[in-house]
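Hey all, quick one. A colleague (J.T.) asked me to put the adenosine-5'-diphosphate job into the tracker so the inputs and the structure tokens live in one place instead of scattered across chat threads. No bug as far as I know, just bookkeeping. Sequence used:
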Amino acid sequence: MADDAENLWTADPRRLLRPGPEFNLASVDRAGTPGWSGDKDDAKELMLRRGELLSELQERLFAHGRTGGDRSVLLVIQGLDTAGKGGIVRHVLGMVDPQGVALRSFGVPTEEEREHHYLWRIRNALPRPGQIGVFDRSHYEDVLVVRVQGLVEREVWEPRFEEINRFEEEVVESGTTIVKVALMVSAEEQGMRLMERLDRPDKHWKYNPSDVDTRQRWYDYQAAYADVLARTSTDVAPWYVVPADKKWYSRLVVTELLTQALIDLDLTWPQADFDVETERARLAATMQPQVLAAAEQAGEQARAKHVDGEESYREALAEAGSLDDLPGDDGDD
Ligand code: ADP
């Protein structure tokens, strides 16, 4: 296993996985690991290290939200059944403090939701300042399943692409960084994963007979996804098309995308809005001398550790930032 797993990225996944004008969904190798020259163990190793950085960055975001900041991050996860949406939530978001994560899954609209515009339930679920919002499925279902199943006429879903772009622009303007990932599993792998759900009684709860109905419309869904990617990958809210046959790869990529989104916010710890020395004296006056002495000793150690911590954080940031220097395209999208 490599000591320095960051170096195993040969290209920046942010640029590599963004669909450009020539993008062709059919040519995406869903078992591929674009930009990653390491193996599964290397990826797991890097994810663990990234997890520490991600966790610190998330705490900074949370603190920022608690002190009047307006920034937040929204991770939109789309993908067909078995693409690994739940695994991303468990393994990537599972690395940060759940208090700072606002997870929402979007299923078939409820009766109440159906009485409103399709973006109503989405607006209500947007992350508050300081939060990482996660959408497991999203408003994109309204141009995917709704279209493929013919739940509304073309005249109704067609204008939604533009409407979604305007909506996301507004969300970004209000301080939210949007990271959209389309997990792309191959038909073969999806078949295997569904079969495994049938083979294992402990997975039956995950199986829904309608999954096979959806699978029977595979090409319609691919066409609908292709349109989504072509029409709603904007500069302010780009899509990342993530090959998902290797779960460890898609999890690593999403960890990287989220980490980079948080790095780009460039948040510092909020300044105290009180005088620290005055408070220290007031608190000390309430403490027994021997407890105070012990606290002072612990305080010295904590301050020293913080300086170390800040240094390793800066180092990790510098390493992470080095992805910027990588080429954006290896010509293999
Ligand atoms: P999952 O399959 O993601 O584990 P569910 O079992 O709750 O979660 O399934 C969600 C289902 O809801 C999916 O089949 C999805 O296509 C459907 N769905 C989501 N949004 C809409 C929508 N706006 N209109 C119709 N169906 C939707």
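Adding what we noticed when we looked at it: The chain has a mean pLDDT of 93. Strands lie at 72-79, 101-105, 132-136, 176-184, 239-243.
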